[in-house]
Request: fold
Amino acid sequence: MAGGGIPIGGGNKEYPGNLTPFVTITCIVAAMGGLIFGYDIGISGGVTSMDPFLKKFFPAVYRKKNKDKSTNQYCQYDSQTLTMFTSSLYLAALLSSLVASTITRRFGRKLSMLFGGLLFLVGALINGFANHVWMLIVGRILLGFGIGFANQAVPLYLSEMAPYKYRGALNIGFQLSITIGILVANVLNYFFAKIKGGWGWRLSLGGAMVPALIITIGSLVLPDTPNSMIERGDRDGAKAQLKRIRGIEDVDEEFNDLVAASEASMQVENPWRNLLQRKYRPQLTMAVLIPFFQQFTGINVIMFYAPVLFNSIGFKDDASLMSAVITGVVNVVATCVSIYGVDKWGRRALFLEGGAQMLICQVAVAAAIGAKFGTSGNPGNLPEWYAIVVVLFICIYVAGFAWSWGPLGWLVPSEIFPLEIRSAAQSVNVSVNMLFTFLVAQVFLIMLCHMKFGLFLFFAFFVLVMSIYVFFLLPETKGIPIEEMDRVWKSHPFWSRFVEHGDHGNGVEMGKGAPKNV
Reply:
């Protein structure tokens, strides 16, 4: 096997192949699956700060926000029903990602993307025409099912399709789509909020049909990955596909390694039970802790509730949506920095730099908001320069996240799993991500109400912990072919004790038979 010129098994080999236009276009189309997730994150925060929407569905929140001036600014949006509207989606995504694992493994990555697009489409329609809270919740649950399928399949598809030298950049296309989805949603919220008659929120929610159609149509025209075709028994088709995506005829070495990986994976009757084997402990730990840490950076708090947050710290509705647009632009630009640098500087460097940047900004924001709002939540007249300073620090924080934990939180888990546990492990990754997104969304407004500016310090503590974790326990995966990834664990000072040398599911000795139980 091969890997970026690093000797393996006594050889110094690399898979030949080019970054072909076919692969580039394919990965761009597949990455559009991130649009549905991003659009939803952006739209839900904006819609929940629109008065006509609150008046129709959440009148108690509307009254608290507009009429009851005695309400602490930190607590004006504290409503369990409003929170359930936002976070029901993530619970649904968690459940559907578990089902998606089986579909992705047995029927290919494309079918999961198709299901994801169709479910999201129906959910968007129901939300756009909603007249009751229950319709909103049902629509959100269908959106969640769609996101669970798409988030399970798209990162795997990208990691398998991309040449290993460009895997980081092409995979981060998924995160770039998420950030573009957030930005588009913020811009639309800004303009739809101005519509006379107060029905702009219907366009915001119904507009989710557009990204849903993109991923639905995209999944119908995309080719399948060679890995998936081999897994389902179509070896001739897979070899032809591999020649096409690599742009060369000589793909025998990579093809043979994919076949060996598939044969090893066929020996695994139950990938879920297999995940618990000792030799997969490093991958399982990453599949749980990376998405957990990603949610506890506090980013979704900023993105979900950027309009709400800016409104609470003294911006009016219009200005708060505009501030959310600003953070959205920063998010997109910084993700492009990650696409440029991930295969040059490596994953660890971006993780650690981004962590340091987020930590400093969270402490600064906590200090700035704490000094002005105290615990009463009443800032009096907030000077414009003060509000600008807070937004500036939040933007620097968003940039730090967008070139580190944002894209790498999806990239690293999708590239470290051997084929025999890949679908199951990716489902664990998505499920943990959605579970903690759900929990953070569920308790954020309550925490904001009770912890006030201390909430930023709460997340700053987790950023410190996750940076220490990356420094000591995350190996560098830059430039290593996806089917050769097991060697990073064998050479790691801590994880090597879990992975016996000469016993692994998808490496040099894979062709010798079934993986042994450790």
